[in-house]
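INTERNAL TRANSFER SHEET
From: sequence group
To: structure group
Subject: THIF-type NAD/FAD binding fold domain-containing protein

Please process the attached sequence and return the structure record in the designated field. Keep the field labels unchanged so the import script can parse them.
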Amino acid sequence: MFMCTATWSKNGLLSLARDPQAVSPLNDPGFMRDLPTTLKDDGVICSARVPLVFCWPQADTNGLPEVNAQYKADKVTTFAELAEQATEWRCRVALDDFVSNFNRLLGASKSRVEIILYLAFPIRRPKHVIGTQSEFEVMAYRISFVLGAKLSAADNTPVTPVAFISPVSGALLRRTSALREDVGESQLTFVGCGSLGSKLLMHVARAGSGAALLVDEKRLVAHNVARHVLLPEDVGRLQGKAERLANIVTSFGAMRPKVFGDDIRELDFSSAKFRGFFGGGRCLVVNTTGSPSVREFLAKATFEARVMESALMNHGTAAFMTVEGPGRNPSTTDLIYHAYERLRGVGALKQPTDSKESVLEIGVGCHSVTIPMSDARVSLIAAGVGQKLLEFGQDGLPDEGVTAVSTVGSDGMSITWSVDHVGPTQIARVYDDEGWAVRVLDAAHEKILNDVDQYPGVETGGLIVGNISPLTRQIVITDILPAAPDSTRSASRFVLGVQGTVDSIREYESLGGRTLWCLGTWHSHLAVSGPSPMDRDTARLLDGTLRYAAVLLIRHPEGYAALVRDGTLG
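Return from structure group:
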């Protein structure tokens, strides 16, 4: 016999029992004395620790429960009918033995409260029960009775059939989510537990996986309820988002994630407490803060774990997801600019015509503005990103960097994701001013190689576009624009033409939204070399002509060289 924690409705329609624990034999009078002490009754719902009794069939000649090959619909509605059915199942001896002992104990009870018990009959079938690996079909019933009143095989007290259902566990959730169970879990660190981050976390938890570490320093405030998985009742808790979410994840049968309730930039990745979350292998850092400074911090961090980032843009009409490549190349910063390049092409980088439409006042003082956007819109994006997280958990991280961008259709329902696999970023050697870093993204690199192959034996070139950060002094070249048709190519030099060049730049920058713009020029050298005197003269002409800096990029057979000259302030 087992004792379960049970909850049931007094009208007899509903019940739920869980946490079965084996108890001492029925002939212990203390069992009946303690039974009513756990009862709680609010007039509608009751709860208590109640018995679950298994009545096994008699053994066959081999000492095993006898096989019952007779299948029929379950029409049992009373205890008398159940006793009759138990005879057919060859469980009657066990049932009568239970009733005899139970009635003796009931007589010793002075309480007259109404309570329930569960009776289960494991019936051995000739073959495994469909959908299981067991040959036992368990028929179970709930019966209500009043302590002090005895049970009888002729009693017409109603009984209700009940089912045995697997409790919440990682294994159950993985099977229900159509995921394989024979794979190791990813070790996920969630940096940011806001509207998008909390939804991704719940997608993972509901699929039977968990998180290793949650990082967020903020508590839930009123306007967060519009888009967060947490509820209004959580607003009043003196508990951070990460702490509250960690407790919720545990309720899905997963281990409780560790929590760092401060800014990620304060975390010591080398400390014994946290370094295991940022190793190589299946460790993944999921950044949903949408913060450029957090992105830059993670990109410069020296841990081995790859970074995945996702965020929404333009009130949720566009979004991106990036995953660093092996060895963290391309980096999370490289990939965001690759994503921007893709989003530029669909007009998603354009500046809003009215800046007032971009913010919503929700109070006074710090953190009193937010972006107007519905929970449904965040969920639309979170579903796709969450699905990708589950795939990474099943199949491992990709062999290259990944950038995915999405746009929501004008109908507000349809969404289109475009996925690019991105190779390593090339690093140019910067001459004359080594304070600058010049990074050539894979898409631009491949186009440059194709252009060089198209013009063998001569120098070729064109325009370069991308982004410059004067704060970090980092230049990211995202793409190239073709040279003007009046450009000249020879073995000794490349001269960029002017026909249509200004229009080409304006057309590109019209969709760049002050995020992507023309950075300068590139050309090839036929031999491995740095800048020539002629290149330096050309770079000098670019000084002060472009936003933040002007770049002259050189492609040679073994890599890239670059000259950088100061530009305008913006």
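Handover comment: The two ends are 78 Å apart (CA to CA). Residues 375-395 form the longest helix (21 residues).
Transfer complete.
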